[in-house]
Design a protein that fits this description.
The chain contains ten helices and six strands; from the N terminus they run αββαββαααβαβαααα. α1 packs parallel to α2, α4 packs across α5 and α8 runs antiparallel to α9. It is mainly alpha-helical and about 200 residues long.
């Protein structure tokens, strides 16, 4: 988040704009990371912290996690389109409006209902275990198939999914990993994917 203490409103506005640029680059880095990113949310995530979480492939929260987006209600700003697009993709337009236009805090259970988080895990140890188990499952999958699936899902929001899917599907079908997957299936053994 930003340190909202400043000598003047002009300085605060400059800090806010500069912070938005840094935040946008950080969220883009998460969203375009070559491997899936799992957000583990404990405690409060408001404003920029929530945008960073929204850029993750999915989010696992503890029951005490709290979320809020106070840009309009506390700061009087219109959120950047790239950030809003992530929330609309996660929650749909009406629920994103609810989050952004009311600024009302949302607890973990409500965030799950809204589509803001994907899982609420009761025990702190189980929270990290859940994230690690998901990461292991992804790590065991074929890297080309993982990257391609993520690319097509992202392309659905942009409207160019058929072309992106065509490229990634051809790459996957021509890969050694695909041949390994078929062989492993036929031999009833776990596949050993290499990313080639």
């Amino acid at each position: 988040g930003l340190d909202m203490r400043a000598d003047t409103q002009v300085v605060l506005a400059q800090l806010l704009r500069a912070g938005e640029r840094v935040l946008g680059r950080a969220a883009d880095a998460i969203a375009t990371c070559p491997v899936p990113v799992i957000g583990v949310l404990i405690g409060a995530a408001a404003g920029g912290a929530l945008e960073l979480a929204s850029a993750c492939d999915w989010r696992v929260a503890s029951p005490e996690a709290r979320f809020a987006m106070p840009a309009a209600t506390r700061l009087g700003v219109v959120y950047a389109a790239e950030g809003l697009a992530r929330f609309v993709a996660l929650m749909g337009p009406a629920r994103a409006r609810l989050l952004f236009l009311t600024g009302a805090p949302v607890d973990a259970r409500r965030a799950l209902e809204l589509g803001l988080v994907d899982e609420v895990v009761e025990e702190p140890v189980a929270l990290w275990a859940s994230a690690r188990a998901a990461a292991r499952a992804v790590a065991d999958a074929a890297p080309i198939a993982v990257a391609g699936t993520r690319a097509v899902i992202d392309a659905l929001a942009r409207g160019d999914a058929p072309e992106v899917a065509r490229i990634w599907r051809r790459r996957a079908f021509e890969s050694r990993d695909h041949r390994e997957g078929l062989a492993a299936f036929a031999e009833r053994r776990p596949p050993r994917f290499t990313g080639s």
